[in-house]
Write a structure and sequence with these properties.
351 residues; 12 helices; Arc Repressor Mutant, subunit A; alpha+beta; 35% helix
């Protein structure tokens, strides 16, 4: 199907910015010239002009003597963008933050969006991001690698609500299995993209890491996403990605050496903190599964102690026992190297 030319043209804001630029530089601006410049119909040009005059309050009028539109007095800024100094800084920081996602699926789209926003500011503010942002940097460890073709195929299926097939490899397994899924949602959690969908064979919601998805097949079979599905509710019981149907009250004590770092961040929406003697801190979480929080606690080394539930405490104890065997007297080097008490603090600096 061939779309009308206006539907293939640039967006309305971009058209009006172009008209504004032509008027500011004193060009002869009439419907005929704007139709050619913007590649739209006369009706579209008239509508854009009317919007600029009536809705944006621009001093725009048609001068019959020159048979063209003109500004009746100087206009320095296009009125759709009003930026405070703080908002400008936020915009600059956002551009800097884009760099950490270079090579990921959304980088190019975000870069284009930032370009459009900053283009609207050039009449009022001039800045050099390279100079302004030397004092701001972002660094995330372990950014996930996602195949752009896989991401685009799945994101399209999510938007169209169409079933997909793909091969999937579970963590720790070498063989792939075939899956048929109704894709509900794409989520970026802990720097990795995940697909949340209804697995038709297992008849249950599942979470799939995109780097482990391959050979995506678009079936074009439509489905209706359940009205009660909510990504917020789906991830509510998870510390990171893996939720569950359990209802665990997790209690962890942190030493004074790391307590300040725990206070500084929002770890989970259910979190509650209580001050302990000597500057130590108690953190309480309500979670649906324990595997992720167990790994997180181990990352803090000797600075964290699980108080409850009993099964999590036992799991941590078993892991510590296994680690002692790995790094103890029977290590590969044949030498016994005592574990420094502060090791746990060093290991938690990136949290």
């Amino acid at each position: 199907m061939n779309l009308p030319r206006d539907q293939l043209s640039r967006p309305p804001l971009e058209r009006m910015l172009k008209i504004h630029e032509e008027l500011r530089r004193g060009a002869l601006v009439n419907c005929t010239k704007l139709m050619k410049l913007l590649e739209v119909s006369r009706k579209t040009v008239v509508r854009d002009i009317a919007f600029m005059r009536d809705r944006l309050d621009l001093p725009l009028e048609f001068d019959p003597q020159i048979q063209a539109y003109r500004y009746t007095h100087p206009v320095n800024a296009f009125p759709t963008v009003h930026v405070t100094e703080g908002e400008l800084l936020a915009l600059l920081v956002a551009q800097r933050a884009l760099e950490q996602y270079r090579g990921t699926p959304f980088h190019r789209q975000l870069e284009i969006a930032f370009g459009k926003l900053s283009a609207g500011l050039r009449d009022r503010i001039s800045f050099s991001p390279a100079d302004e942002l030397r004092a701001v940097s972002f660094r995330n460890i372990g950014l996930g690698r996602t195949d752009l073709a896989v991401f685009n195929a799945l994101s399209g299926a999510v938007l169209r609500q169409e079933e997909v097939g793909f091969s999937y490899r579970k963590p720790g397994e070498t063989r792939k299995s075939s899956r048929r899924v109704r894709p509900y949602h794409l989520a970026n959690r802990e720097n990795l993209w995940y697909l949340v969908g209804f697995d038709l064979e297992r008849e249950a919601l599942r979470t799939f890491a995109l780097p482990r998805i391959a050979e995506v097949v678009l079936t074009r079979v439509p489905f209706a996403r359940p009205g009660d599905f909510s990504p917020e509710r789906f991830f509510a019981s998870a510390l990171g990605v893996l939720g569950g149907s359990g209802n665990y009250e997790v209690v962890i004590h942190f030493t004074a050496a790391v307590a300040e770092r725990i206070r500084e961040r929002e770890w989970h929406e259910s979190q509650e903190m209580r001050e302990l003697p000597g500057g130590a801190l108690e953190l309480r979480l309500r979670l649906g599964a324990l595997s992720e929080v167990g790994q997180w606690v181990l990352g803090w080394g000797t600075a964290a102690e699980v108080i409850a539930p009993a099964e999590l405490r036992a799991s941590i104890r078993d892991t510590v026992t296994a680690l002692a065997r790995t790094y103890g007297a029977a290590s590969r080097t044949g030498k016994t190297v005592p574990l420094r008490p502060e090791f746990g603090l060093q290991g938690s600096k990136s949290h």
